[in-house]
Each structure stands twice: as C-alpha cells, then as structure tokens.
Amino acid sequence: MIREVGRQAVLLAGLALLPALAQALHLHDRISWQPPAADEVTVSRAKEWGDAVMWLDARPIDDFNSAHIPRALPLNTADWDSLLGPVLNSWSPARRIVVYCSRQSCDASREVARRLRDEAGLKNIYVLTGGWEAWQESGK
Amino acid sequence: MINNSKLPGWMVVVLRILIGALFIYAGATKAITPLRFATDIANFHLLPWVAAMPLAFYLPWFEIVCGAALLLSRLHRGAIFILLTLTFVFILALTSARIRGIDISCGCFGHAARDLSFGSHLLLNVAVLAVLLFLWQAGFRRPRA
Asked: Which residues of A touch B114 (CB under 8 A)?
C-alpha cells in the first residue's frame, strides 16, 4: 500500500512539473528572479495607498498615450527635461511616487526613480513590481 | 475510489469532488500570478527568494494536478497523501508566522482570500485537513466483515 501511494505521489509530482516548467520558461524574461528591492511596491499595496500615490509612467511616450494608469503622468529619460516640470508641479511631500515601466524585467522605472532621487532630490519613491503588465493583470 | 467509511457512498464522492475542485481553484488563483505568490511565500520568512520563486511556479500546478486526480478519481491515494501533507505544512507555516508576529495572508487561495483573518484561514485549512483525513480513511480502511 505504501509503495502504491509513493508511486502515485511521484507520478503526480512529475506531472505537475511539466506545466510549471512550461510556465516558468514562458515567463522567464518577464519576471525578475532576483528578490524584490526594498523600494519596490506591489500593485495591491500601492492601490491601498489610494490618492496619496503619484503615478509616474516611465515607458516611451507613445506607450503612455496608448494607455496608462489613471492619473499617471509621463516621465521617461528620453524626454526628461520637458516632462519633469509638470511632475514637479504636481508633486507634494505628502505624496508617494510610484514609477512603473512595461514589465518586471524593464529598467526604465529604476532609472527614473534613481534620477528623481539623485537629481531632483525627491523622497518616498517606489518602483512598481511587475510594472504596467502587473497593473493590467490586477484588473482582470 | 472504494468507500470503506460508514458514510453513504454518494457523500464520499461529493466530498472528493468538492475538495478536488477546491484545490484546482486554489492552484489556479496562484498559477496566474506566480510573482505575487512568490512574494506571499517570501513573506513567511521561512524560505529565501531563490527557493520561493521556483516553489511559486511549482506548487500551484501541484495542487491543480492533485485536485484533478481527486476529481477524476485517478491516482487519488497519492493525491490525498500529497494534499494532506501540503495542508499540514500550510497550517504549520501559518501558525509559525502568527507566533513570530508576521501579519500576512497565507496565500493559500491566492489573493482571493486576502481579507480573511488568521483565524478564518486556519479554520479553513483545518476543515480541509479533516475532510482529507476522512477521504484517506474512507479509501483505505478495510471493509467490515
């Protein structure tokens, strides 16, 4: 009996490995295998912050114009000088800035967050885990 | 699945289907958001991220496959054994987090159950464990002469 249970358990464990591996391979370039950085925030946590969040879209301006998080402002490194002004006008110390780019593996949000800290001297800046892709998934 | 319990056969079938469907649902809610589930696992502070990520990909499918085995009554003994073990581990991890003062969702049913309290999560897992134990016993106890 024990042998039968063991055999079935091993078979089931092997069966589960197939879709798990397929999914991991499918998503491997869209998911960071590194632990989230301390300044990362998940969609659900950022949503809990409500109106205290100032969303910044670090994707190319065409992507922003196509669709973006409600009330988000565009701020990418390519158009930094022209886009920074409106961002600073909307910013207040009480607000938390959450920057996002396309997906987990993109670096644009990190770069924008770094420049906001280093060049604009702003604080309370977070990077959205999973980016725009995670935001869309959260709405499904 | 042979019914060696005192309960009517249809009741054992209903419980088997319910538990099978429950684990398919629980697995599916987590399989669609592996990164979120990895964060849930990491929040327990029991495993490093390097282990949480692969587990977040594997565990949901493990639950789905075992749930499907129960639903279809194929390889169900192995499935019940695995699900018993998993549920027991869930309960241990949940209790351990509570003792260490970590206020988290267990992630057992993805974020569909994020608003459940610790007590509700624990009760749900204990109820599932009890039904699995019953199904295990129903499938293995020798029939009375």
From this structure: 44
